[in-house]
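Record now logged underneath.
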Amino acid sequence: MDQYHADIEHIYQVMEHQSYSGEVMTTLSTPGILARNIKEEFPEFEYTSTYTWNNDYLFTKDNMAYREDGLYVENDFFKILDIDLIYGNRDELLTSPNTIVLSESMAKKYFGDGNPIGEGITINNDQELTVTGVYRDMPSYSTFQFDCLLMYDDWLEESPWASEWGNNGPRTIAKLTPGVDIDDLNSKIRDYIKTKDEDDSNVELFVYPFADRYLYGQFENKVVVGGRIEYVRLFSIVAIFILLIACINFMNLSTAKAAKRAKEVGIRKSIGASQGSLIGQFIGESMIISFFALFISIVSVQLFLPIFNNLTDKTITIDFGDPILLGLFLGTVVLTGLVSGSYPAFYLSSLEAVKTLKGSLKSSWKEAFARKGLVVFQFSLSIVLIVSTIIIYRQIQFTQSKNLGYNRENLITFATEDEVGEQWETVKDQIEKIPGVISVSRSSHPFLGQNNNTSGLDWEGKDPDTRILFENIGMDYGLIETMGVELIDGRTFSPEFGNDSSKIIFNETAIAAMGLENPVGKTIQLWEEDREIIGVAKDFHFQSFRTEVNPAFFRLVDWSWRAYVRVESQNISNSLSQIEAVYKQFNTRYPFDYRFMDEQYANLYQAEMRVGALARYFAFIAIFISCLGLFGLSAFTAEQRSKEIGVRKVLGASVQSLVVLLSRDFTKLVLIAIGISIPISWYLMQQWMDDYAYSSGLEWWVFILAGITALVIAWLTVSWQSIKAALTNPVNSLKSE
């Protein structure tokens, strides 16, 4: 990701560490005027650009109207990143008001195949923009994805709050001059915000390599602690384990069948073959098998890659001309050949020629012990994967079923754009009259992550050194009821009590953080304005379960941009069609784009769902390969003990007793594997669970279930060969060769 930029080693993200009462939050958000100021004051910055978050905007041209994903950026954005221009002058793309640069796809959609520079297109039905450039669509391996880029100053004019040093929101990206000492630069800019913000700022600035953001983007107390790289490491380890299980199978079966090659070794040694030449021969055979396996695996990967990409939501391609990739393939083959072939090679080459030629070769206890140890090892790995799969599945189910503190079922949301927002009271009144609609309200908050927060609160008894970040939820009357948030004290906002715009409602965590007792009726200051606490809401989750519930407050505002409508579960489609009709009555030019809250909430856990799906596949592969080895060993064991089985049958042994006899040794090995794997899997999954503030926990029965599953699979695998051997006519096994 993002490695295709020519000057990637000089591209940096300007970020903030924000301190709140002993805790540090690291964020991409910066003041909206930071980029242009640091470029002027610090020569280390060659180019800087502020950019906004991705947002959907309505674009219209003639009879066409579509929502497109866009960013507002400064013109240096094109000098920092490798954006491949088709039309336009890179130095003049977004230097004039009301200008826009289109992606190739968007340009073709609205203007056909011609050059659209100088043409006009309308955004949000109220602003005519002039096209000044066209760029090739951003590649899939770019973290930046957008359909168009717009002039940042146009956005800044509509968002004056972003011009204040004490406010954060937009992001800042920069290209540094070559040879800059990053540690020295970070020390220079660390307190830069404090020199600009009259209020005692809690912000420290720093630059972070843009190339590292995708994989190493998780911070704790100013230190990088991981990110997506954890998933890369996790599945790399799992892949190594699976390959190791396959190598163990090869070792076990090679040494188990050593007797069949013993005479070959004896003859070779008797005619002068050295142990070294024999080792080379057996490792060479292992290498040849590995190279054949490489060919089969490449074909398999090509066949299954589209399915894998769909499962992981990636667009991975394999460039077989990449020397690094080829080196990785060959290195894996050589390593696999050495690991799987070394033990059999050293074991077979060490056999004594005289004993092998006399036919007196017997398996030693060391050989049997090693073989059994390898079986225990591979089943231990398999059980760890089974445990991991079950626990990841339970955590996903936990996140989808736990009470969030509000009811997300049968709750739809849509943007209150244009006339819908301007005539909201009329729109709300008409929607409420629709059969099947329970309640309607609107808010400035999406309830799907941090959106707007502040530390600008004071209250009686507050420690001057205390700084707490509160989530700021702007709302209209009826939101708390529509969302299904429970009040544990006081009342909600209501026009029956007159003007509630000077009132405020906190959640439980906020009240606890402020140390307030009997808070209803008390007065706090929000941005130096008095507000009376009229209620306390029960804690509700507006972020992922990885994060603890943060302090939050509700306040009445008149500019909320998101509608929330709760409908009855019966005949939802009819209710939606009537809601759309009301929407279209006021917004004829905007498409009615609604979402169900439960679907949007589920999207928060897409990464966990993909990990869960991959874990299931990997666990299946590991168990399958382990069973292949067990199947081969049980077949060999049954063959070795064929005369014993024949004698026992002649003496009256039943088929059932013979099956138990042949399965007993393997059962012991799996039980030992269960004993080894349970504490290991508990430790590993506890580490994984530590990433969640709220989790399903590690139940004892999960480990028992995983062990029983492995045991049953082993029994089914071994029993086939055991039953087959037990049913064999003893005459066939006892007659002399």
Residues 228-362 form one domain. The radius of gyration is 34 Å. The chain has a mean pLDDT of 88.
